[in-house]
Design goal:
Order of helices and strands: HEEHHHHH
Radius of gyration: 28 Å
Largest sheet: 2 strands, antiparallel
Length: 155
């Protein structure tokens, strides 16, 4: 013999619905005639996708001076089409050179500044750059390097 569970459901009264709505901070007050609306709405909660910031500024622990300018911070920003056109020749560069070129494009800083960064600053910048690198750019990079990290197009 199997155990059978019996559930008894009870319809909520308009007052009980109003109490639940008040607890959820939703208005279902009686109308002018004293009636509670038959359709009630629960409090909406937004579940947003990760929103990408337009810019993020990284304070450098070790400032860099280059070409008469002092770099105490670098601001990462989303790439534009012109940046992509500038980066098209990166497949001929080593992985380190490509990474420096990409960070330079993301920050609009000269590649010489990126190359001169202290390792801690470089790693912080590199980590913060992740959300600013277009997904398709990452996919193309993975296709070129393959699982080994070596350029798959080289003989």
């Amino acid at each position: 013999m199997t155990d059978t569970k019996i559930s008894i459901a009870k319809a909520l009264t308009p007052e009980e619905i109003a109490a639940i709505d008040r607890a959820n901070d939703v208005s279902s007050a009686p109308d002018e005639g004293g009636e509670v609306p038959k359709t009630t709405h629960t409090k909406a909660q937004t579940v947003a996708k990760r929103v990408r910031a337009a810019e993020v500024t990284i304070q450098l622990e070790y400032e860099i001076e280059f070409d008469g300018k002092l770099y105490a911070e670098l601001t990462l920003r989303r790439l534009k089409g012109a940046d992509l056109l500038q980066l098209q020749g990166m497949s001929d560069l080593s992985e380190e050179e490509s990474q420096a070129q990409l960070l330079a494009a993301l920050t609009k800083a000269p590649v010489e500044v990126i190359a001169e960064l202290d390792v801690d600053d470089f790693l912080t910048l590199n980590e913060a750059a992740g959300p600013f690198i277009p997904k398709k750019f990452l996919e193309a990079s993975e296709m070129l390097t393959g699982a080994t990290g070596q350029n798959a197009q080289q003989p």
